[in-house]
Design a protein that fits this description.
Layout lengths: L14 H12 L8 H8 L3 H19 L2 E4 L5 E4 L2 H18 L1 H18 L4 H4 L1 H15 L5 H19 L8 H8 L2 H14 L8 H14 L10 H21 L6 H21 L7 H8 L1 H18 L5 H15 L8 E7 L3 H12 L6 E7 H7 L7 E4 L12 E3 L6 H12 L1
Parallel strand pairs: 3-4, 3-5, 5-6
Antiparallel strand pairs: 1-2
């Protein structure tokens, strides 16, 4: 009886795995990848490759201001500052170690080590024993216990740092960024790590790489809302207490669990401040929707953020502000008495007026509203749906037999109408 060995099953990569592969390859300097080579590595056709590159380009452009394009020789390259490229590498290398670690081990690290060997970098610098020792030293200096994945990430990051050092890829930091990290323990630890490497290098690693590694240590840190170990943490706790106080004062609303709110804001802002300092964007459409639905919540959040922004000399983008506003809004809803109010907006032949009226109503309250729509004709014949708290009409109309409060707003809302609507919505 003849037996045959079954053909190996080809692994089908997910889109995100393919994106990780593309970026990790393209972020290797002085190596060239044609579309054909990239599609072969990922096991895709050229059409899929082009779609993957378009999706990846969109994401890294939004978050890191980077551009993927072919050069004159037909090789794909990434354009942008060295700092943005290395910040992009930080996020995508961590993602790759989570979803496609074998590719990093088998395709990326061997390429880097081969480059280091060709440039006559002493092997003792990048062998596993030395890399493990340097990561262990980092953990002791920072009084941290790195997870297995973070420890592996740091070993790989040190290899990339040597690679970028050889390629003269130098991340440049502005004054605020340098001062931000130089006052932290992470920078001292990074300087010590590169001090060990520099003793065996003919040309020492530039100090900017120490700033980069310091930021990497900081970005890897898990925020601890119970910690007040250093001035940065103490200042952040103070700023959050002031934000919460200002929010209460401006709105007259209270949080049922202010300690829970404080802890969540601390965890979020600890990481958001790093993003803002480094100019890292966030790819999300949520804040745009929040701005449309809750303009007063956004406006109030912007106001209470001003002291914190002023202290750190930072500007929070609309996306970052929107995420903070979501936290405030969610904790407002923790109070038992606060429920989503149901508003019915009557529609007819003047959509611009209806849209403007909805905007005016949303600007009157921080609390979530569910605005439903019904034509004036249907309102006359059918009345209101169940559980409606308020009916607002930009058209003259008569009341059905049974109806919740109805406000005519043919013209812009008067002060009296605004006060009445707010009382109904927040009552």
């Amino acid at each position: 009886m003849t037996t045959t060995t079954p053909a190996p099953v080809k692994t089908v990569l997910t889109r995100q795995q393919r994106q990780c592969h593309l970026l990790l390859l393209l972020l290797l300097t002085e190596q060239h990848f044609t579309p054909e080579l990239l599609s072969t590595i990922n096991g895709t056709d050229l059409e899929t490759l082009n779609n993957d590159i378009a999706d990846t380009h969109e994401e890294i452009h939004a978050c890191h201001r980077l551009v993927i394009r072919p050069n004159t020789e037909g090789h794909y390259i990434i354009e942008g500052t060295d700092l943005d490229k290395q910040l992009c590498l930080f996020h995508w290398l961590r993602r790759a170690l989570r979803i496609t670690p074998d590719f990093v081990e088998q395709q990326i690290i061997p390429r880097i080590k081969q480059t280091l060997k060709q440039q006559s970098i002493p092997r003792a610098l990048y062998d596993e024993t030395n890399l493990h020792a340097l990561v262990s030293l980092s953990a002791r200096r920072l009084s941290r216990q790195f997870s297995e994945r973070d420890a592996r990430f740091l070993r790989f990051w040190l290899l990339y740092s040597l690679h970028y050092h050889l390629a003269d890829c130098l991340p440049e930091f502005n004054r605020l960024q340098r001062e931000w990290i130089e006052n932290r323990n992470e920078f001292s630890a990074a300087c010590e790590i590169f001090g060990h490497l520099n003793r065996q290098l003919s040309a020492p690693v530039h100090g900017q790489h120490s700033h980069m590694l310091g930021f990497v240590f900081s970005l890897l840190k898990t925020p601890d809302p119970d910690s007040t170990a250093n001035q940065h943490e103490k200042q952040l706790h103070f700023s959050i207490r002031r934000m919460t106080h200002d929010f209460r004062t401006q709105t007259g609303l209270h949080f049922s669990d202010e300690e829970g709110l404080h802890r969540q804001l601390y965890i979020h802002l600890f990481q958001a401040l790093e993003r803002v300092v480094l100019g890292i964007g966030i790819e999300t459409s949520l804040p745009e929707e929040i701005v449309r639905l809750y303009p007063r919540l956004i406006g109030t959040t912007q106001q209470v953020l001003q002291p914190l922004s002023g202290h750190y000399q930072l500007h929070f983008s609309a996306q970052e502000t929107g995420l903070i506003a979501v936290i405030f809004g969610a904790w407002l809803m923790q109070a038992d008495a606060l429920h989503e109010k149901q508003v019915l907006l009557l529609t007819g032949d003047n959509p611009p007026r209806e849209k403007e009226l909805e905007k005016q109503v949303r600007e009157l309250t921080l609390l979530p509203l569910n605005i439903q729509y019904q034509t004036v004709q249907a309102f006359h014949h059918e009345g209101t749906p169940a559980d409606i708290d308020l009916v607002i009409s930009p058209y003259e109309t008569h009341f059905p037999l049974v109806s919740p409060p109805l406000i005519h707003a043919v013209e812009p809302l008067t002060l009296h109408q605004q006060q009445r609507i707010r009382t109904i919505l927040e009552g």
